[in-house]
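WARN no homologs supplied; continuing
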Amino acid sequence: MAAEAHAPTASEYIQHHLLHLQNIKQNSIIDFSVINIDSIVVSAALGLLSLFVLWLAARKATSGVPGRFQAAVEMLVEMVDNQAKANIHNAQSRKFIAPLALTVFVWIFMMNAMDMLPVDLLPLLWQGVQGDSHAALRVVPTADLSTTLGLSTAVLILCFFYSIKIKGMGGWAHELVTAPFGTSKNPLFAVILGVVNLAMQIIEYVAKTVSHGMRLFGNMYAGELVFCLIALMGGAAAMSLSGVLLPVGHIIAGSIWAIFHILIITLQAFIFMMLTLIYLGQAHEAH
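OK structure emitted
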């Protein structure tokens, strides 16, 4: 007699929601041949949508009284431009960095906002398309560490680019071996200080890049888990006649957390954008 299907436990439910749609089944903890297809597709689609929204705002901009959409975008552009001027003192660099910061803010906000969708909506639709109740799908790209570290690594590469562009290869190389402890006229001490300074610079670059990506990932991952836990309240209510208060608690808790999460997704996008501007500003400065 075939075993009867049973509802997943709370642990199984959460574990399933933390699985990615991948190109192959992962057989080890670290496997660089594994690609999280859902993160790539969703982030790329939202990136195109973000560019379209910004393009639409620019296309419909008028010199007269702005509409609500234009006014909101103008406020956002002005905010980003002011922050760029405060951190990037090179006017030529700001021509690229300011639009970059605006794009980063809008893109990350859009990716974070995927967390506001009902936690089971898109995964269930995907399971229906696949015809497999175990098909996995995660729709919040910024709750994927590979996405956030990819973004922070791109910022690191830009820091290298501007360090070389502004200071020259020789100037940047000199900075790497003389900051933060300086150098010495004694050749032996100069070599020792150079090695120590280089090690400190490497540690600083690695720490900034990892913390830049981990901060965004940690907050969005935690938010996703909270939504899963709130969803479990509704599931427990459906399976228990005694849990008559759980539906009310499910709605109240979900609404409160969703309202609070709007602040989180906006704040995290702003923090990532600000750190991007700060790190690129530091790349322009001599130590």
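Confidence is low (pLDDT under 50) at residues 237-242.
OK
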